[in-house]
Amino acid sequence: MILNHIWGLYAHPREEWQTIEKRHESLSYSLAHILIVALIPSICGYYAAAHIGWSIGANDPIRLTESSAMIMSVGMYFALVLGVFALAYLIHWMAKTFDSDPTWTQSLELAAYTATPLLMVGVTALFPVLWFVVCAGIAAICYSVYLLYSGVPIMMNIPEEEGFIYSSSVVTCGLVLLVTIMAASAIMWSMGFGPEYVA
User: Fold this and answer.
1) Which of 131, 33, 129 is nearest to 80 (CA)?
2) Does pLDDT of 1 surpass 50?
3) Mean pLDDT, rounded, for 149-178
4) Are 188 and 71 in contact (CB under 8 A)?
5) Which of 65, 122, 164, 199 sits most deeply, having the most CB atoms within 10 A of its CB?
6) Is the pLDDT assigned to residue 41 strictly greater than 90?
7) How far apart are CA 47 and CA 126, in angstroms?
8) What is the DSSP string of the chain?
9) Are 14 and 96 spatial neighbours (Cβ–Cβ below 8 Å)?
């Protein structure tokens, strides 16, 4: 069943990583997981931006037009999916340095399940208060990093010491990837693709 590892990754992550490692699903299974879970922040973000409005401080909520919110949420969806694929590519590419030879599917599974808390925390956009969403996002980042550190030695079949260095390298690359996506968004906004606000 699609998404059947999510509860295990929250309740008992190490055991769930071992389960994932023992019975690798197909590439289409991992793709379906990413494509479904990435819908959560996109749909919630659209609804919050177009219908609820973001509260920043004591000012009135800021809302976008429906068409602008739709464009932003579709762009976010594709950026999230491409980000997970880029992370999987980095995991696969760096594996040779650590004498590991994972399949592309293994790398994609590791990236997809590691990114799951970050994607699922998008549901907090339904309560669009900046401090709340930021706190939830920080907690999700911390848990995603924990999942990565606990999952790399198991999924890549390497010792825990090497897994720590490998995970640290992936986290560094992931942060560079995040900054790149943010910079690309800022450039797009400055080129006239920014949001339209409801007056």
Assistant:
1) 33
2) no
3) 89
4) no
5) 122
6) yes
7) 7
8) -TTTTHHHHHH-HHHHHHHHHHS---HHHHHHHHHHHTHHHHHHHHHIIIII-BB-TTSPPB-B-HHHHHHHHHHHHHHHHHHHHHHHHHHHHHGGGGT----HHHHHHHHHHHHHHHHHGGGGGGS-BHHHHHHHHHHHHHHHHHHHHHHHHHHHT--HHHHHHHHHHHHHHHHHHHHHHHHHHHHHIIIII---B--
9) no
Q: Residues 45, 126: contact at Cβ < 8 Å?
A: no
Q: How far does CA 4 lie from the centroid of its chain?
A: 18
For the cut 70, the answer to whether the pLDDT of residue 3 exceeds it is no
| Tokens 């922040």 -> residue | 41
Share of the chain above pLDDT 70, in %: 97
In sequence order, the β-bridge partners of residue 64 are 197
